[in-house]
Specification:
The protein is of the alpha/beta class and about 675 residues long. The protein folds into three domains: about 5-305, Thiamin diphosphate (ThDP)-binding fold, Pyr/PP domains (Rossmann fold), CATH 3.40.50.970; about 340-520, Rossmann fold; about 530-665, Rossmann fold, CATH 3.40.50. It is about 40% helix and about 15% strand. Strand 10, helix 15 and strand 11 (about 390) form a beta-alpha-beta unit. Helix 5 packs across helix 13 (about 285-310) and helix 21 (about 550-565) packs across helix 25 (about 655-665). It is elongated. The structure holds thiamine diphosphate (TPP).
Length: about 675
């Protein structure tokens, strides 16, 4: 569209109508909020309508957008269903998120509003991931991220911008600079009120609309930008505008003193609707015709509000639905094989097979294409698929995870590799606020099929930030699955399970298992979400996780061959937990009911951990079967020291396992 087209009367009327719709909807939201029907903290965009409508006028229906806490205007302008929006705001089951997302998570996939997320900056990465999916799938769509000026201060913005630039992705970044983040003016937070000049150095093309309340200026600029974006040139557009109401809620907040009424008056006089209304009148559009537009909007709102009130509240059992799903394919376990393979080779085979089976599987991470191929894991996949599907990435753990979430929303199955699980703490927001929760917040409609593969080290000198085993923290969050394969067969089977699961799954490999060799079937198989009963006994239940299993077996041998208890050999159930979430509580509880004794050996710390959870579950469920209080062995309650003189006392060791078995099984 050019200026000539823009001034066409039908276009002007459409832009006016779209803005009017947002204004009147949010005024209705205000009323419903005041009457107590809406409980959620609504973030109104009254005064900012021109940005949403202007940008959307440059998009096709098939293009996709993502938004933030202030998402009502974007949702409506992209064609989101108004009835489902009101139902969502009222917390009803017919809401676009079935009442589970609320005002800050509006989305309408059909209309191309893919997602909204209120943690500042988070959704910007989703737009980049969508852009990546479009590029890999060769789809001629663009994605647009809407966000406020506050998001510029978040690392995720720069990580996302950088990635889009390096990979030439079809993404438009739209910053609605309304000059404040909550009660903080932009000049208190940033070196200048103008943002655009700080962004251009990232290799994206930049645009600035100084009066973002002028819908024609926004629309014209968006058309210019989108033309470039469609050709793989990411663009950034700043539109200066102003929020009339308080940050959240429906009132005015001039009395708070962080901004002046005079400043507000300037922008209220510069109302996007009033300006366009004047233009329509100048172009001889009659007052009657404008009133008819008002009437049409009113009717639509009345119907939408009626729909929302008639909709049922979600039932109580909805509380627990949509947290996660079980994979739809049948999993097979204990597949026998004469073929022997090393642990790393088995994992690499799993990655390769997944990529061979499904074109949507991509692999991303820092240094994935380097000569070592992440301990060899990625070499076969990289040799076969090259850099289009095995993507070396910038050092942006959080951004990358968000980009993977976005790519998953675009239909991909991304795998992210972090060379150490310690680095994953930088991605906590994207993994656990976003990936883990978006299925739930969308009422089960978002599918975040991402796999995160990472490693635990146990070597002298690795020190405090390279030797943690963080599985318990990761497993704390509903919505993710976490596994630690012990055998080569499970290294492959658990990776395949993770990749083809519909939820985010974290796989942590312990590097001290890398030299293990074992039977690994050559074909496709998955390791089910259950524990493995390594050996069957009657005297004691030993639950272990990951690398400690070898020491446990050694400890049992020592007890039997060196010490013996009352001249008898002890015969334990040894359970290799494999999955930390979901974990196989049935197998553990049935075993403890048989043996009456429990020892848990973990690769993590003791407090608030896997061992705490298992012992608590057994005590809650089966304490009367226990002949002795349960015991546990874990890492020492300190960060891991680098000095090999003391590091050797840090991890669970065989002597401790022997001592605990003797205490549990002795008289
Ligand atoms: C990561 C994060 N930090 C803090 C908040 C609390 N918070 C919600 S909205 C907001 C201000 C955001 O300002 P801006 O990005 O300019 O958007 P606006 O509200 O002006 O539309 C803040 C600090 C949050 N949601 N997420």
């Amino acid at each position: 569209m050019n200026i000539g087209q823009l001034s066409e009367l039908s276009t002007l009327k459409k832009l006016y109508y779209e803005m009017l719709r947002i204004r009147r909807v949010e005024e209705t939201v205000s009323e419903l909020y005041k009457e107590g029907h809406i409980k959620a903290p609504v973030h109104l965009s009254i005064g900012q309508e021109a940005v949403a409508v202007g940008v959307m006028s440059a998009l096709e229906k098939s293009d996709k957008i993502v938004s933030t806490h202030r998402c009502h205007g974007h949702y409506l302008a992209k064609g989101g269903d108004m009835s489902k929006m009101f139902a969502e705001l009222l917390g009803k089951s017919d809401g676009c998120c079935c009442g589970k997302g609320g005002t800050m998570h509006l989305f309408d996939d059909e209309a191309g509003h893919v997602i909204s997320a209120p943690l500042v900056g988070a959704s910007i990465a989703f737009a980049v991931g969508l852009g990546l999916a479009f590029k890999i799938k060769n789809e001629k769509k663009v994605s647009v991220a809407f966000f406020g000026d506050g998001a510029i201060e978040e690392g995720i913005f720069w990580e996302s911008l950088n990635f889009a630039s390096v990979h030439h992705l079809p993404v438009l970044f739209v910053c609605e600079n309304n000059l404040y983040a909550t009660h903080s003016p932009i000049l208190k937070r940033q070196p200048a009120a103008e943002i655009v000049s700080r962004v251009g150095s990232h290799g994206v093309k930049t645009f600035r609309v100084a009066n973002g309340n002028d819908v024609l200026a926004v629309s014209d600029t968006a058309h210019q930008a989108i033309k470039l974006v469609r050709n793989g040139q990411p663009c950034f557009m700043e539109a200066v505008t102003y929020r009339w109401r308080e940050h959240w809620g429906v009132g005015e907040d001039w009395h708070l003193g962080y901004r002046t009424l005079e400043e507000g008056k300037y922008w209220i006089d510069n109302c996007p609707l009033k300006t366009l209304n004047r233009l329509l009148v100048d172009k001889a559009v009659s007052k009657n015709e404008i009133s008819r537009l008002e009437e049409k909007v009113k009717q639509e709102i009345d119907q939408a509000v009626d729909f929302a009130f008639e909709s049922k509240p979600p039932s109580a059992n909805e509380l627990l639905s949509d947290v996660s799903v079980s994979p739809s394919f049948v999993s097979k376990d204990n597949i026998k094989s004469d073929r022997k393979l090393g642990y790393k080779e088995a994992a690499a085979e799993g990655l390769l097979q997944a990529m061979e089976l499904d074109d949507d599987v991509i692999l991303m991470g820092e240094g994935v294409d380097n000569i070592t191929g992440v301990y060899g894991h990625v070499l076969p996949a990289y040799q076969k698929f090259g850099s289009v599907r095995v993507i070396d990435t910038p050092l942006s753990e959080n951004g990358l995870t968000g980009i993977a979430v976005g790519a998953a929303l675009g239909g991909m199955r991304p795998i992210i590799i972090h060379q150490r699980n310690d680095f994953m703490l930088l991605a906590m927001d994207q993994m656990f606020n976003q990936a883990a929760k978006l299925r739930y917040a969308s009422g089960g409609k978002h599918k975040i099929s991402i796999t995160i593969l990472s490693f635990v080290a146990r070597k002298p000198g690795e020190g405090v930030q390279h030797s943690q085993s963080l599985h318990s923290i990761f497993a704390h969050f509903p919505g993710v699955k976490v596994g630690m394969p012990t055998s080569p067969a499970d290294a492959k089977g658990m990776i395949l399970m993770a990749i083809f699961d519909e939820d985010p799954v974290i796989i942590l490999e312990h590097r001290s298992l890398f030299d293990k060799v074992g039977p690994v079937p050559a074909g496709f198989y998955v390791t089910p979400y259950s524990a493995n009963l390594e050996s069957i006994g009657k005297d004691l239940t030993i639950v272990c996780l990951s690398a400690v299993i070898e020491q446990v077996k050694e400890g049992v041998d020592m007890v039997n061959n060196k010490y013996q208890i009352s001249g008898q050999k002890i015969c334990p159930d040894i359970i290799d937990l494999r999955w930390v979430r979901p974990y196989d509580s049935d197998l553990i509880i049935n075993s403890v009911r048989k043996t009456g004794r429990l020892l848990v050996v973990d690769t993590g710390w003791k407090h608030f951990s896997v061992s705490s959870e298992i012992i608590a579950a057994v005590c809650e469920d089966s304490h009367s079967y226990l002949k002795k209080p349960p015991k546990r062995i874990a890492m020492t309650e300190a960060p891991c020291p680098a000095s090999h003189f003391i590091e050797k006392y840090y991890h669970p060791e065989t002597g401790g396992i022997v001592k605990n078995i003797m205490e549990l099984c002795g008289e």
